[in-house]
Amino acid sequence: MTAVFRHELRMMFSSLTAYVYGMFSLLAVAIYMMYYNLSVGYANFEYALAGASFALLIMIPIITMRIIAEEKKQKTDQLLYSLPISTTQVVVGKFLAVFMTSVIPLVIVSVYPIILKNYGNLYLPTAFGAMFGYIMLTAALLSIGIFISSITESQPMAAGICFAAMVLNYYMVTLAEYALSSAYGSFVALLVIEVLLALLVRHMTGNDLLAEGLGGVAMVATVAAYIYNSDWFEGLFPAILEKLSVYERFYEFVDGVFDYTHVVYFISVIVFFLFLTVQSLEKRRYN
Amino acid sequence: MIEVNNLTKFYGDHKAVDNISFSVKDGTVCGFCGPNGAGKSTTMNIMTGCLSATSGTVTIGGYDIFEHPMEAKKLIGYLPEQPPLYLEETPREYLRFIAEAKKVPRERLADEVERVMKETQISDVADRLIKNLSKGYKQRVGIAQTLLGSPKVIILDEPTVGLDPIQVVEIRDLIKNLGKRHTVILSSHILSEVQQMCDEIIIIAKGRLIAYDTTDNLEKQLQPKVMLEIQTDATKEESEGVLGQIEGIENAEYSEEDGLLKVLITTVPDRELEIRKLLSRKFAAIDRAVLKNDKVKANLEEIFIELTHAEPETHEEKREGDEP
């Protein structure tokens, strides 16, 4: 694992990736800090981080697109399979390397609240609480990005899908509240999601029966529940998305709430997507 | 050292490897030969743990590759068909990463990398980016990677493909040297190449094992009759007269070459030397010169083509794209 970690980190820093990412990262925080803290004069560094989290939509695809897609394209994944290291070690090593790369610029950022404190009445615990939330958010989004990179061979494709996933993640609660808060809207949205999940299962396992079975059972259950009592579906979809959205959890940190359930949630997201990545890589051996 | 038992692999409905069994002893160089799409790469990928098998077992040094992959993989150095190189790195960085992954102790890391670079003669390009190296050097870096940690078994998939003739000779010499200290398995679709480098040959076609024996035995087995070629200034009638006096000649073909008569003779193997001596004497006795009196080297290539095509045609099409 340390071998993969060091190797990945070296590749990141010998190419432009780490520097471009660092530049974007620092620039985003700097711009929002200029606006919220220096220009408008809020005494909350959290707002600057909340604003900067928007830039992750572009940054996450930049840093994760190469990570596994390129291995497949250059056929170096065969080397990783034949080395005496497990797929889990490979994936965790890669994750830690991108995580490290994304945390390094934040070390510089962590000095900002201390500097600001000298010129105003800044409450440091919430500032660093939000900082912690920002790091967790980055880690969760990175694990999603790594998973997306593992399902394709092409870097641009990985970046495109990843960007779409990030945008969806960012806006989904707002969008769902506008369009799908009625019972019927939620019902249809759930069915669509179930079909998409079934397609994903089929893509990952290559097993039609399993995918159709799972999708079928879920859809029948949804239809049955809707017929039995459609009131249940009132506002259901936005509520589910709110629970699922990684950004919503991060905003809790920004609001000054340090809740351990959120930490557990972020860690679950990371573990879940890294697990999916391992499965996606293992699947290639069982095609 | 390597035991493969009843190995079968399906890609969907396509049977890429069909019930292959063989075992390779310690210290042999074994050649895997077959036309493109025969299942060579698939078999090698399964043997190195890169691919799962539908059924059957592979044991490396006593460890099952599916049950104890970590122990088994430590004994293997593998070079896939396309050398798995990180193009943005230098050979030194690349080899260092693989040595670390193979758990070479930290204090021996630099020495180990130096050692394999020396062995594969890439020390002079050690600090250039791999993407700027020629194909021959890239192949050497790929081979260097397999040698790290001195694994007992080295598996090379088509190591000479795409190289120029001089590079081919160099890589062949390198592999012959490796055979002194490792068990080597290599694949190729050129039989004569395998014949030159290997002690044992496995021929597969359409996923099935067709022949498996030592190179010498295979040559004998495949060519039970010995062919002799003579050139003489005698006429066809005179030659027929001479050949008629010699026992053990089964067939003779006559042709004209450079104003001389060329005779291709088929004989039984155990009397080959005696017949060659007799031919010289008998022609001399009728005052005719023999300008050539040679055993024709068994042409394995032809037999190979015959063997691999003699297999009953299956209705399935060869599917190249299926090979990973």
Beta-strand residue fraction of chain B: 25-35%
Radius of gyration of chain A (CA) equals: 21 Å
Q: Count structural domains of chain B.
A: 2
CATH architecture of the largest domain in chain B: 3-Layer(aba) Sandwich
**Category by helix and strand content of chain A:** mainly alpha
Provide the helix percentage of chain B: 25-40%
Biggest contact: A-B, 25 and 31 residues
Number of helices of chain B: 11
Could you please say which CATH topology of the largest domain in chain B applies here? Rossmann fold
The assembly state of the depicted protein chains is: heterodimer
In the CATH scheme, the class of the largest domain in chain B would be: Alpha Beta
Q: What's the count of strands of chain B?
A: 14
Low-pLDDT ranges of chain A: none
Q: What is the number of E strands of chain A?
A: 0
Inertia-based shape of chain A: flat
Secondary-structure element pattern of chain A, one letter each = HHHHHHHHHHHHHH
Most strands sheet of chain A: none
Question: What would you say this structure looks like, in words?
Answer:
The complex is a heterodimer of chains A (287) and B (324). Chain A is 82% helix and 0% strand. Chain A has helices at 2-14, 17-40, 45-52, 56-73, 77-82, 87-109, 112-117, 124-150, 155-179, 183-205, 208-228, 236-244, 246-254, 260-283. The model of chain A has no long low-confidence stretch (mean pLDDT 89). Chain B has helices at 40-47, 69-74, 91-101, 109-119, 135-147, 165-178, 191-197, 215-222, 236-244, 272-285, 300-310; strands spanning 2-11, 14-24, 29-33, 55-60, 63-64, 76-79, 153-156, 183-188, 200-205, 208-214, 226-232, 249-257, 260-267, 290-295. Chain B has two domains: 2-221, Rossmann fold, CATH 3.40.50; 225-297, ACT domain (Alpha-Beta Plaits). The radius of gyration of chain B is 25 Å and the shape is elongated. In chain B, strand 7, helix 6 and strand 8 form a beta-alpha-beta unit. In chain B, the strands form three sheets. In chain B, strands 6-7-8-3-9-10 form a six-stranded mixed beta sheet, sandwiched between helices. In chain B, strands 2-1-4-5 form a four-stranded antiparallel beta sheet. In chain B, strands 12-13-11-14 form a four-stranded antiparallel beta sheet, covered by helices on one side. Chain B is built from eleven helices and 14 strands. By secondary structure, chain B is of the alpha/beta class. Chain A binds chain B through residues 2-4, 6-7, 10-11, 14-15, 74-79, 81-86, 284-287, and chain B through 11, 45, 48-52, 69-71, 73-74, 76, 78, 80, 82, 84-89, 93, 97-98, 100-103, 145, 324.
